[in-house]
Specification:
With 230 residues, this protein is α+β, with helices and mostly antiparallel strands. It folds into 3 domains: 62 residues, Arc Repressor Mutant, subunit A (Orthogonal Bundle); 53 residues; 84 residues, Roll (SH3 type barrels), CATH 2.30.30. It is built from 8 helices and 7 strands, in the order αααββααααβββββα. The strands form 2 sheets. It has a 5-stranded antiparallel sheet with strand order 6-5-4-3-7, covered by helices on one side. A two-stranded antiparallel sheet has the order 1-2. Helix 4 runs antiparallel to helix 5 and helix 4 packs parallel to helix 6. The longest helix has 15 residues. The protein is globular. The N and C termini lie far apart (48 Å). The mean pLDDT is 80. It holds the Pfam family HTH_11. This is Proteasome accessory factor B. Keywords: Proteasome. It comes from Xylanimonas ulmi. InterPro entries: CBASS_pafABC_assoc_protein, HTH_11, WH-like_DNA-bd_sf, WH_DNA-bd_sf, WYL_dom.
Length: 230
């Protein structure tokens, strides 16, 4: 589907903002948006002329950046976009992202057309119930896990009555459940913990260096063999 240039310009800025302060090459932008490098260069020039604070980073891994705190005027979702976003966020019910997803969903719907709000409120959404995750009671502290992963902060879990310190690495979803993948300090090694079985999460304030985790991707490729805490 051909995208209007105005929509692509907004999307380019959003793409750069999401990755700031890391630079993105023109080649990568061209591939992302399905246009030529020459077209992307013209788009970047147009954005600069419009006052968007773009800058270039030289070097082998250089590219284009936008000032991290730059924001565009509010983007108005089309009806189908707002509905798709609301449905996708609704599927995070019961996940570690539930509270944040609910806030984001409310913000999107607050700016959505009346017809979309009415459809969502009435439950008229094009998603079969079998696609929804299994509803489990929110676990205290589980919402802290995404931030701890981003900060590389050690967390203390109470998991099925046992207490242990772990280095949180990833959150995965499978078979209707969310799992925390972490380096377990008591015995070492990568382990999986079902988030609905986590009884409490405590932030320790201790940062960890990912020394043990070079093989995490390999472990995740063999997910069926990663031990899951009982």
């Amino acid at each position: 589907m051909r995208v209007k240039r105005s929509e692509r310009l907004h999307a380019v800025v959003d793409h750069l903002r999401a990755r700031a302060p890391r630079p993105v090459s023109a080649e990568r932008l061209a591939g992302e948006f399905g246009v030529s490098r020459r077209t992307i260069e013209r788009d970047l020039a147009a954005l600069r002329a419009a006052g968007v604070p773009l800058y270039a980073v030289d070097g082998r891994s250089g590219g284009h950046c936008v000032v991290a705190d730059y924001s565009l005027p509010p983007l108005n979702f089309r009806a189908d976009e707002a509905l798709a976003a609301a449905v996708a966020l609704d599927l995070l019910t019961g996940s570690p992202f539930e509270a944040a997803a609910r806030r984001a969903r409310d913000r999107i719907l607050a700016a959505a057309p009346d017809a979309v709000r009415a459809e969502v409120s009435a439950g008229v959404v094009p998603v079969d119930a079998v696609l929804r995750p299994r509803r489990v009671p929110p676990t205290p502290g589980v919402a802290l896990l995404p931030g701890a992963i981003a900060r590389r902060e050690v967390v203390r879990l109470r998991y099925r009555a046992a207490v242990r310190d772990v280095e949180p690495l990833r959150l995965l979803h499978g078979d209707g459940f969310w799992y925390l993948v972490a380096w377990s300090r008591p015995g070492g090694g990568v382990r999986g913990f079902r988030t609905d079985r986590i009884e409490a999460v405590e932030l320790t304030g201790e940062r960890f260096v990912a020394l043990h985790h070079d093989d995490v991707d390999a472990d995740l490729s063999r997910w069926d063999r990663v031990p899951v805490g009982r």
